[in-house]
Amino acid sequence: MNFSRLGTIILFFMLVAFQSIAQSNHLVRDENGRHEIPRGFVVNTNDGAGELFYTSDDYLRMVRMGANYQVIRLELGKLSSFQGSQLKPEYLLKLDSLVDLGKDHGIKTVFKMTVYSVKGFSWEDFYLNKNAAQETYVEAWKNIWNRYKNDIAVKGYDLVNEPRKHDMDISYTDLTNNYLVPIYQKIIDEYLKIDQGKLMYCQAIFMNKGDAINHNQYAEITQSIDRENVVFTPHIYQNKKQWIRPTMLRFVKEAELQNGPMLVGEWGYPTLKTTDTSISDQLDYMDYYIHTAHLFDSLGVGTIKAWFSGNRVMQNFLPGGPSTWAIFSDSTGIGTVERKYITDIIARPYPQAIAGNIHTFNYDFSTRILKVSLLTDSNKGTSKFFIGANRHYPDGFTVHIGDELLLIYNPIKKAGLELLKNTGEWEMDNFIWDEIRQQLVILKWPNDQQELTLSIEPGITGKSM
């Protein structure tokens, strides 16, 4: 046998094995014990031009784009006693409204602390705990921990958003191991005095401009935080396909150090304003966004896209001109005009919450086929699949479950799901198409601990492509 071909075969099976292991390592359970894939958006309370206020329609729009999570960016300046800052009771009420809007639409919440609203915030003072900066920071978090400790819709807290090194004369490794990790331990220990039920989301150092590891601007964590319920929460903003996989494989190792799952806390290269008027540039964006999305799904990790907002504020942080992370192109705080070359990839079909275990899942953008391999656990309740038929299956779709069951959805008839074939123990009453939320809901599996393959395919002929 040709040895280069043998090497390719071995590599293929190694990758398959790695992907299966990686998916199980990143398993997240919801309050009912279902296997959950977190997916959603960063929600800002302020965009630099002023306050942002969300409505129920905005949250329904999130759901119709596949969101089951939101990450709310907290403003430290409205929660703390740092210089020029103070606790704003009206800000807490605003946070309540965002959590409640999420709950009303089946969206869970993670809070993320940002320091941008504290003028003159010093990362060096924070690391060295000058003027008790760490205690002041923890007191800000306590306002959140005490408020939401009994709210099961609040899943956890992203403790320090994009910590920086700036001008400190120290290596990234030493800064991480000798300062950042002990700070995470300190914050978590203080949280545990108040509550024990939430997840602790932890990020790596955001490296200075010009510094990077394999073209990725986030330093490596090589030490365990050594606490329970830690979720490694890296960010990836990458427009070079060849560096996406190496970066994600590095993140997998860092997550394994924490003995917990991984949530990609922010992703998606920012959008240049000029891209909105260039088909060739949009195709380029789609190419590396699809590549990134495939890799996320192959690893079974949850992902959060920045930002669920409009184009009111743009920045000049890219050499090509004004740019933004906003997914809407409206020149308003919160928009409705999607950048579809981005949103159609974000809003791809996937298994949201499964009564059982998800082994693997993949959505093929070229064929529009979603394939899910799973193990049923009927005692865990309802299973939900986000389909996004309004954007991915305007021609209708067919549901295949093994060789036993065929269901179709005809968007012209709008009569819900129709049965084409049933050679097993499936009951049609257990299948619901939720048009408003664009979800396929399976109320109950017929058998427990059953290995199943489910696929969603375009068209209503019932023929496999």
The N- to C-terminal Cα distance equals: 33 Å
Any idea what the shape is? Answer: globular
> Helical element count?
10
The overall pLDDT average reads 92
Structural description of this entry:
- The protein has 465 residues and is an alpha/beta fold.
- Helix content is 30%, strand content 25%.
- The protein is built from ten helices and 24 strands.
- The strands form four sheets. It has a nine-stranded parallel beta sheet, with helices on one face. Strands 1-2-15-18-23-22 form a six-stranded antiparallel beta sheet, with no helix packed on it.
- α7 (241-257) packs parallel to α8 (279-299).
- The chain is globular, with a radius of gyration of 23 Å.
- The chain starts with a helix and ends in a 7-residue tail after the last strand.
Short description:
Helices cover 30% and strands 25% of the residues. It has helices at residues 3-25, 56-63, 89-104, 123-128, 133-148, 172-192, 241-257, 279-299, 340-346, 389-392, and strands spanning 28-29, 35-36, 39-44, 69-75, 108-114, 154-158, 199-202, 230-232, 235-236, 263-267, 271-272, 302-305, 315-318, 321-324, 350-354, 356-364, 369-376, 383-386, 397-401, 405-409, 417-422, 431-434, 439-442, 451-458. The chain is globular, with a radius of gyration of 23 Å.
